[in-house]
């Protein structure tokens, strides 16, 4: 299996492709990530066209089971963050 790209490798590749400095590309990536966090927190979702959607979802309280003892326990409600892959991304990868 090939090794995964590191953040610095991604920055270098994008800098070379678009003729920008590594610092400019790094700032753009950081700005995109910050925007994604803020928009998801404020509006509940953030879409990156062609890649997917970051979503904030409310998960209801439910009954669960302690795997060690088998005892039923109450799992409290909470908010979770999910990333939903775009259909185009799934088709391109698979």
Describe this structure in words.
The protein is α+β, with helices and mostly antiparallel strands and 94 residues long. The chain has two domains: 1-43; 51-94, IHF-like DNA-binding proteins (HU Protein, Chain A). It has three helices and five strands. The strands form two sheets. A three-stranded antiparallel β-sheet has the order 1-2-5. It has a two-stranded antiparallel ribbon with strand order 3-4. Strand 1 (45-48) and strand 2 (52-59) form a beta hairpin. The two termini are 16 Å apart. The model has no long low-confidence stretch (mean pLDDT 94).
Topology:
Layout: H1 7-18, H2 22-43, E1 45-48, E2 52-59, E3 62-65, E4 72-75, E5 78-85, H3 87-93
Antiparallel strand pairs: 1-2, 2-5, 3-4
List keywords for this structure.
alpha+beta, single chain, 94 residues, HU Protein, Chain A, 3 helices, two-stranded antiparallel sheet, 3-stranded antiparallel sheet
């Amino acid at each position: 299996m090939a090794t995964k790209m590191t953040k610095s490798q991604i920055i270098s590749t994008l800098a070379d492709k678009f003729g920008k400095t590594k610092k400019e590309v790094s700032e753009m990536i950081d700005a995109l990530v910050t925007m994604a966090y803020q928009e998801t927190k404020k509006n509940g979702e953030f879409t990156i066209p062609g890649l997917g959607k970051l979503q904030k979802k409310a998960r209801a309280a439910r009954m669960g089971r302690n795997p060690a003892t088998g005892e039923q326990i109450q799992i409290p409600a909470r908010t979770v963050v999910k990333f939903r892959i775009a259909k185009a991304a799934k088709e391109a990868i698979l």
